[in-house]
Amino acid sequence: MPFWDLQRQLGIDVDRWLLRQSTAQPNGNAGACHAFEREWVECGHGLGQTRARRECQPEYEDFMECMHRTKLAARLKTILDQRDKMIKEGKYTPPDYHKGKEDPRP
Question: How far apart are CA 33 and CA 63, in angstroms?
Answer without folding.
Answer: 7
